[in-house]
Amino acid sequence: MALAQQAVQLSGGNAPEILDTLAAAYAEDGNFPEAVATAQRAVDLSAAQNKKNLAEIIQNQLKLLKSMPHSMRNHSQLTNSLAKSHSR
Fold first, then answer.
1. Torsion angle, alpha carbons of 45, 61, 31, 79, to 10
2. I want to staple 45 with a disulfide (CB 3.0 to 4.6 A). Which of 16, 56, 67, 74 is the partner?
3. pLDDT of residue 85
4. 3-state class of 31 per DSSP?
5. pLDDT tens for residues 41-61?
6. Dihedral sign (CA 68, 73, 78, 82)
C-alpha cells in the first residue's frame, strides 16, 4: 500500500496505471470505499488522456468492485478477480 501511495505522489497523481494499482491495493486491504474512489479517478484520468483501452479495463474492475455484495468484499473471489484483471 505504501509503495503504491508513494508512486502516486511521485507521478503527481497523473498516471492512471498507478492509480489503478493503488485502487487494487486498497481493495486487497479491504478499504473498498477508497478502492472505488481511486479506481474512478483512474478511469476519469485515462479517458482524459485518451487511453480508451485502459479506461475500459479499469471501468470493468470498478464495476466488479461495485457489484460485489458487501458480505463478499473480504472474500478471496474479489481479490482473485481484481488480480486477474489487473495483470492484463
1. -140
2. 16
3. 61
4. coil
5. 999 999 999 999 999 999 999
6. positive
- Can you tell me which residue has the cell 486498497? 26
Specify whether the CB–CB gap between 19 and 37 falls below 8 A: no
- Provide the pLDDT for residue 71: 54
**Single-letter residue type at 71:** S
DSSP SS3 for 16? helix
Name the nearest CA neighbour of 38 among 67, 58, 60. Answer: 58
C-alpha span between 53 and 61 (Å, rounded): 13
Q: How far is CA 35 from the centre of its chain?
A: 6
50: left (phi over 0), alpha (psi -120 to 50) or beta: left
Query: How far apart are the C-alpha atoms of 78 and 48, rounded to whole Å?
Result: 28
